[in-house]
Amino acid sequence: MGHARSDQAFTIVIETKTLDDTIHGFMRVRSMLKFRAWNTSPQCAITIPFTGKRVRE
Fold it and tell me: What is the count of structural domains for the chain?
């Protein structure tokens, strides 16, 4: 079957930012296994929404 290689990709998107420093967006995580003997690669993806606030030091 050959050796598997795994590729991961992370994307962070900030959709809106308000005047009080609140941000809204999402993080997308994708993982793909690659086998030399397969024509297709199994893939897994998830999108996680978030809301946050800017922290000032």
Answer: 1
